[in-house]
C-alpha cells in the first residue's frame, strides 16, 4: 500500500532534529543512533549514504568521511509520529568511534556493566588520534 | 569483560531524557523509540518491564498499562556516549499505538511513502477510542 504523505519526518515538531537509528540491514544489529536535520535527511536520500547532523560540531556529519566507515543506505523508515527515522544500512567497518561495530557494546546488568563487543578497529588508526 | 562504570546513562548530559530504542529480542525488528528519565530507567531495571517517560503527558509511561501490550525486557545496552539506550524486549501484541507491531511501518521511497506493516490490532479496541 502506498500513500502520498508524509515524504519526510516532521522536523518542526521535533525542534529541528529527529533521532535516526542505524540498523545493519543484513543481521539486524542496531549500530548507532544519531540526529538528522532536513539537510542531512535530504543528502542521505539523494546520495544513499548516511549523513547526520553533529550536535557537538554544529554541522553536517557525513558518516565515514574521515574514517572510511561509511553507511550505505538500503531503506529508510519513519515512525508513526513522524519524529524518528530508522535506516537499514550496510556498514563499512565499525559504526562506533571507539572502534566497535556497534555503539551499543556495553550491556547494563543488575550488578555491573559488561563490554560484549569486540573492537574491530583501533580508534587511533581510524581517526589519527588517541582514543 | 566487565567494568564498574557506568551503571546508567548520563541523563544530565542528555538534558534529563535519553532516547531508548526497543528491539524485538527474537527477530531483531526495531519496534519503537521513546524516552527515559532516571525514574523510568530505574523502574525498568527493577521490574523487567519497559517504562518510558511520556513527553506529551509529562509523566511515566508504563508501556502496555492501558493496552496490555507490555514489553518484557531481556537485556539493556548503553551506547558509547552513554546517552542512548537499546532495550531488547519481548513485545506483547503491537508496539505501535496505531496497531502495527512496529512504529516503523512506513518506508520512505524516492517517490512515495509505503505502508509495509500489517495492522495486528485495531487501535479503537486497544485503547477504547478511535484511531
UniProtKB/TrEMBL annotation, chains A, B:
Mg(2+) binds at residues 79, 81, 83. Homodimer. It is an enzyme of class 3 (hydrolase). SUPFAM superfamilies: HisI-like. One of its GO terms (biological process) is L-histidine biosynthetic process. Pathway: Amino-acid biosynthesis; L-histidine biosynthesis; L-histidine from 5-phospho-alpha-D-ribose 1-diphosphate: step 2/9; Amino-acid biosynthesis; L-histidine biosynthesis; L-histidine from 5-phospho-alpha-D-ribose 1-diphosphate: step 3/9. PANTHER family: HISTIDINE BIOSYNTHESIS BIFUNCTIONAL PROTEIN, HISTIDINE BIOSYNTHESIS BIFUNCTIONAL PROTEIN HIS7. It catalyses: 1-(5-phospho-beta-D-ribosyl)-5'-AMP + H2O = 1-(5-phospho-beta-D-ribosyl)-5-[(5-phospho-beta-D-ribosylamino)methylideneamino]imidazole-4-carboxamide; 1-(5-phospho-beta-D-ribosyl)-ATP + H2O = 1-(5-phospho-beta-D-ribosyl)-5'-AMP + diphosphate + H(+). Its EC number is 3.5.4.19. This is Phosphoribosyl-AMP cyclohydrolase.
